[in-house]
Each structure stands twice: as C-alpha cells, then as structure tokens.
Write a structure and sequence with these properties.
By secondary structure, this protein is mainly alpha-helical. It has 19 helices and 5 strands.
Length: 374
C-alpha cells in the first residue's frame, strides 16, 4: 500500500518517479538514481519523486548520501518505514522531512475492500461466497488490507467448491492461531513494555498480565521483562513493600534458570504481586534530588568528623575528630551533622504515605525532631 500511495502522489503531481528498496539497494544505487534525477530535473524542469521503501534499513552512511540531494531540491524524497522514524532515521534527514503516520484501516474500510474484491475479481466472481461472520477475519487481519485479502484467498481455496460460507469458527480452524504482531527492536516493543510498567504502577494486575502475555506471545525475551520488573520494584514500590525487590530478583533468577514456557507462570506471579503492592517512589525521588544537589554542590567538603584518618597528619588536621560513634548513644543514636555545611538540614528522602513508610517517618521524626521536616 505504501508504494501504491507514492505512485498515486507522483501521478497526481505529474512528476518523474523513481523507486528504491532499502533491502537490496546501497550507496551505488542511490547515486545512480540521483544522477538520473538530475537529468530529469534539467530536461523536464520538474523535481522527481524518489520513493524508498523500508528506509529504516539504510545505514547512517546511506542515509547521509541522500542529504545533499534533498537539501538542493534535486529530488523530493518519500521514505516509507514500519518503524518509528525517531529511532531509525538520522536527525539531519528527519529534520528536513515531514512525518505522516499511516493508521490501521477501520473495520468498515476492510469490509468494503473485501466486498469489492469479491464482486470484481474474475476468479471470485465464479463462486458464491457468503461471509456470515466478520469478527475473526477482521481480527486476524490486524487492520491490514493486504493481509485480509490473502487470508480470504487462503480460506476460500482451502474450503474449495463453488459455494463458500465463511464464519468465525471456519476462519479460526483454518488459520489455527493468530500471528502476533511484535517487533522486539521496534516501536511496539517499547510501547508494550511501557504499558506493562504503567499498568503495574497503576495497580491493575489484569492489564499487567495482558501486556505480559502480548510480549511473551510475541517472542519477547522473558529476562528483558524480568529486568524491567526488578527496576519497577525499586522505583515504584520501594520501601512501601521492601519484599517486592527480593521477590523480583528471585523470579529474575528463576526465569534465567528455567526459561520458557514455564517462566511465564513466574512472571505472571510477579506482575500480579507487584500490581497489588502498595506503591512508593520515595527512594526514586530521593536519589533524583540527591543527584541534583551533587550537580549544584559538586565540591561540598565532607565534614571533618566524618573523614577517614589513616595517618597521623590527617588526625592532626582534625580528620575524624568529634565523630560520635552512634552505637554509644541512647538507642544507637547521637544527634550530629552528616551533610556538608552547604546542605545541612536538606531532606532528600520523604517517606511515602503507606503503612511501612509511616513507621519509617515516625522513626526519623523521633530521632531528628523537626530537622528534616518529618
């Protein structure tokens, strides 16, 4: 469909049209086409259209070779890709292009296309074909008209005869199982991973296991998922349930030993457990704020009482002097300053509003009183 669309554009604009496929073309083929385009531009006075299918397969150097011709207007470039161009197309080329997103066809579009084919195709006209149910056909097509037509042809030829009735059960039996659309390196990979994490963060185990199943059925590495869940256990649950990261790490280890298909059970247990845990991002926010503080106070001096004093000179300079050994204090606590002077009293960690962290807040308030605002 992408090539047909580019040809329609060329016909409507009455422009010379050149076609390349990134699968079997290199810099040499690009240069040959650009030379022909220059000749057409000089002779006809019209900027040719160069259509490159699967442009994301071009390397950086191959994409670089297009830049001068695009900048000088030697060609109007139309590149088609099934990937997110933000990831696959070099910045200088992308900045000189307008991105158009082609969306999946609607169910009505697909039904109209197939009915048109049944009425106008010479071979199909010889048969009496009735589509009693559409749901399975449309679901298996995934919004792709070409796939829908191929599936319909397969089903009609499989059933045979001059009278063909198509329903959901017939489609399912012939196609057996849906081919799951998934690219472990493409945009859908990141979209599904993002949806999985956000569903668990939002405490929805049902959505969580759905996206888990989507990824696993698509062939995703279970260890990739497990790694993401270990991170989530610290970032989104943290001290609200410290057991979460222990469980996540153990299941990561178990998945690495067991592998698929059984790993799906462990991952399902982990996804549902994490989704049903209390949530807190206080540890994540604490390190983020501490990073900011380090950027602003990169050279803040470590207080002398906290410094190591392995030599006599360091001791004479006051290293380690007046340090209060906490275990000698009441309840193993001595009130003293641990932060550099420039950050004294600065709170980076703010306990969340959940049972465990409320206990931690009370613990800190009992010791530090109002110093950190607890």
């Amino acid at each position: 469909g992408k090539t047909s669309l580019a040809q329609i554009i060329a016909q409507e604009l009455k422009r010379p049209f050149f076609l390349l496929s990134a699968i079997n073309s290199g810099v040499k083929e690009i240069r040959d086409v650009l030379e022909k385009a220059k000749g057409n531009l000089l002779s006809a006075g019209k900027t040719p259209l160069l259509f490159i299918d699967e442009i994301h397969r071009f390397s950086k150097s191959q994409q670089d070779s297009l830049l001068p011709a695009v900048e000088k207007g030697v060609i109007t470039l139309i590149g088609a890709t099934t990937e997110n161009p933000s990831f696959e197309i070099i910045g200088p080329l992308l900045s000189r292009c307008q991105v158009y997103t082609l969306h999946e066809l609607t169910k009505l579009d697909l039904m109209e296309i197939l009915q048109h084919a049944l009425k106008n195709d010479g071979y199909l006209q010889q048969k009496k074909i009735e589509i009693k149910e559409w749901e399975a056909l449309l679901r298996f097509s995934g919004g792709d008209a070409r796939k829908l037509l191929n599936l319909a042809e397969l089903i009609i030829n499989t059933l045979g005869g001059d009278v063909v009735a198509i329903d959901n059960d017939t489609v399912a039996q012939i196609l057996q199982k849906q081919i799951h659309r998934y690219d472990k390196q493409g945009e859908l990979h990141y979209d599904l991973a993002s949806a999985l994490i956000k569903s668990i963060r939002g405490s929805d185990p049902n959505a969580g296991v759905y996206y888990l199943a989507r990824m696993l059925k698509g062939g995703e590495d279970p260890l990739f998922i497990a790694r993401r869940l270990v991170i989530l256990a610290a970032e989104d649950i943290g001290n609200a349930n410290p057991t979460a990261i222990i469980m996540a790490n153990n299941i990561f280890d178990a998945c690495s030993k067991i592998g698929m298909p059984e790993a799906r059970i462990m991952l399902s247990q982990l996804v549902t457990y994490l989704a049903c845990s209390n949530k807190s991002n206080s540890a994540y926010m604490a390190i983020a704020q501490a990073y900011d503080a380090v950027d602003q106070h990169a050279d803040a001096a470590v207080p002398l009482p906290l410094r190591n004093a392995p030599t006599a000179l360091m001791k004479e300079l006051g290293y380690g002097k007046s340090y209060g050994y906490s275990h000698l204090g009441e309840d193993q606590f001595i009130d003293q300053e641990f932060l550099p002077d420039a950050l004294a009293g600065k709170a980076f960690y703010t306990p969340g509003n959940n049972a465990r962290e409320l206990e931690m807040r009370a613990f800190l308030k009992q010791r530090w009183k109002s110093k950190y605002g607890y």
